[in-house]
Design goal:
The protein is of the alpha/beta class. It has 3 domains: about 90 residues, Rossmann fold (3-Layer(aba) Sandwich), CATH 3.40.50.720; about 190 residues, Mur-like, catalytic domain (UDP-N-acetylmuramoyl-L-alanine:D-glutamate ligase, 3-Layer(aba) Sandwich), CATH 3.40.1190.10; about 140 residues, Mur ligase, C-terminal domain (Protein-Tyrosine Phosphatase, Chain A). About 35% of the residues lie in helices and about 20% in strands. The chain has a 10-stranded mixed sheet with strand order 8-7-9-6-10-11-12-13-14-15, with helices on both faces.
Amino acid sequence: MAKIGFCAVSGSGMSAVAQVMKYQGNEVYGTDRSFDQGKDTKNKEALKEVGIKIFPQDGSMLDQGIDILYVSTAVEDSIPDVKRAKELNIPIKKRSDLLADIFASHKQRIAVGGTSGKSTITAMIGYILDKKGLKPLTINGALLKNYERQKGIPNVILNNGEYCVIEADESDGSIEKYSPTISVISNITLDHKSIDELQNIFKNFAQKASIGAVVNKDCVNSQIILNANHNTLTFSIKDKSADFYASNITPVKDGTLYTYNGKEYKLNQIGAFNIANAMCAVACCSLLGIEGKESCEILQNFLGTKRRLEVLGQVNQITVIDDFAHNPDKVKASMSALKSYDGRLIIMFQPHGFSPMRLMGKEIMENFAKYMDKKDILLIPEIFFAGGTVKHDISSKDLVAWAKEFGVEAIYFSTREELKEYILTIARPQDRIVLMGARDNSITTMGYELLEKLK
């Protein structure tokens, strides 16, 4: 048993590995500046519920005899925990190092990468394997709705079998640390890195897999990696020649119907992109000996992940939807799904990060323009900033200007509070209020506040 400290323990990735370490019998400690600010109290209580000891982020945690401190890529050297660890000569490692160690300790290692969809696909694969009784340890970046009743934060499926399923992140290069038996690549689109860089990363990722790789045949940028692995399976919702193909995709009130191998199935999630995600998961599980039709049957009871076009509720015929979309491809997928149904869209898009907005802000606005009608409205608060030393040389005002160039009705707000009040003044029956943005747990809170005030 080790004494392990986690800095920024409330984060989706960090909280998952912290819970795994506690599940495996270690003594686990954590700090998070959001806790010190009175935020993320639900996460704080959930972590305490599983026995993780929470400290202020003032360095005092490191005086508890900690053997090692894990930090995320977003943690700066100026944070008191990091300073104190250095004073005490306590080893400091990245969260991705721990994830790589956990992953390597399993016989069957499934890593899910790609620009978009990897959280949902990871959840789907973990759910299928779990329902098959294979006891997979599943480590995700999103909350799993099928596991909300378990103690702790439901971004893990805690098991001690030979299978491990993880979401592998390419944005910080940590994907290169993993040695999978199966590599899954959902797609390759613009997000944090150039297409050329991403193609090289995912080609290497596919080549490393000892059993095989799963690749999206519909993705133009993925064509270069179709033959990277000796055993590659493809999935598609457009190309019948793919190894796993879904057709007759039909939106219904509470999900999506599709046909696979001559039989109709229903997925509880909306959007054709989620059918593609399902085919990806089905293809992966086939490499482990599970028939496609059996995986499709199991996925009919898959409830999805939170903050992925999640309906928070409906009041006076006004629906509030919470969504993680934050890059061009995710915005395109979400908007395509939303426009499959009737009703005006009132969209709050909260941009995440100054560097990402410089790289892809204009393309994000262009993808909103491709789907929005004249009656739809786009509301943009200032760029979400979690701390650090990056240049603040772009603003949401720039995004609004780009949106207007594309003919979108877009409005800038200096604060989210002003934006929320504006929504309350314009919302009417049949509207769908969609709150989009990444890595900010308070967006969901805002959704529930809107529902309460709409009463």
